[in-house]
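Bumping with the actual sequence this time:
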Amino acid sequence: MTRNCLFALVLTALPVALAADGPSSQPAEPAAALKQKVARFSLSEPLAEAMGRYARLAGVRIEVDWASLADTGVKPETKVVLKVSSATVEQLLDLTLSQVAAKGRPLAWYIDAGTVRVTTQMRVLHRDVLPLAAIAAAGRRPPANRPATREFNFEQTPLNEVIEFFRTASGANFYVNWKALEMVGVDTKAPITLKARDISIAKAMDLVTDQLSAGRDKLDRIYWVIDGGVVTITTGSALNVGLRSRVYSVADLLVVVPDFQGPRIDFGNNQTNTGNNTSGTSNTVSLGSNDNNNNSDNNSDNNSDNIAEQRKRVRENLIGAIRDSIGEDMWQPLGKGSVRILGDKMIISQTLLGFKLLEEASGIR
C-alpha cells in the first residue's frame, strides 16, 4: 500500500444492470424514452429500488456503477424521497442523483450503447478510454464491445471553442472564470493545438490546461476542478482561497506489526550423574525458565514502547509526505492548509488549489 492510495480514484466498477420489465425484447432508444412525462410521481425507498422504477417507467436499461458511488458515500440502500407533480423520467433521475450526492462529489449519467449508465461525474469525464492492452490485442482496432474511439483534433482553435467542445462531449456543466484567466494573459481566443486519440476528456483537458500553463508558477497556472457539480476552469490564485476539509481513512497505512518476543530456547550441555548416562553429559532444552521472568517483563515493556514509537513515526512520516508533495508554502504557517490524524482518520484542510495539487502529486489527473 502506497501513500498515493489516499487520493487514488477507484476505477474498478461493479455495475449492476436494471433492465426494463415488460414483454418487449427490443429496448427503447434511451434518449427519447427518458423524455417520457410522468403526471404524478412519489417515492420513498432505497436508491437501488428507485433506479429499478425509472428503468421500468422509461422502458430502458439502467446500469449503476455502485463501486464508484460507494466512494462518495452513496450505497444501494441510500434513501430517496421524491414527490413531483409533473416531470420527465430524465428529470426524476437528475433530481434523485442530486438528492443523494455528497457535497462536492456530484453524480451523473450518460447513454452508452443503448444503456443509461449512472456513475460519478469524475467517471463520466474519464470515460471512453481505450486501454493500450485492448488496442494491442485487437490489432490496434477497437474491440467490438468498446465505444467508438474519441479523437481530439484542435489546430490553433480558440480556447472558448475548445471548452464548448468539452462541454458538449461530456454533458457536464462548465464555468470558466475568464476574469481570472485574463489577469494572467489568457483570453477566449487563446489558440489551442492538440491532436490525440484514445484518451479521456479529463486527460484532454489536462493537456489543454498544461499547454496554457507552460512556464507559469502554481498560482498563475490554469487548472480545472469539479466544484459543486460544475467543472470550473480558473487560475491557481483563484482556487487558493477558502478552506475545505476532507476526511480520509488511513487505517491500512498506520498498521504497525509488533515484534513479538518469542520463547528463549537454550540448547546446553549440562553435566549430570544419571546412572544411564555413560558420557556424563545431557542435552537439555530450556523454554523461558523462571529465572528470566523479569527479563520477559522488561522485554514486553520495551516492545510496547517500541510500538508506540513506531506508530508515532508512521503518523509523522505520512503527514510529512503529504505536506512535502505540494510544498510547505501551501501549509500553515506559510500557507492556509493543515493536516492531522485522529484515530485512523486523516483530516486535511486545504484550498481547492491544495487539493488539486495533491491529486496531481498522486497521479490522479
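The C-alpha cells above came from a reply further down the thread. Residues 1-27, 129-149, 264-268, 270-289 have pLDDT under 50 and may be disordered.
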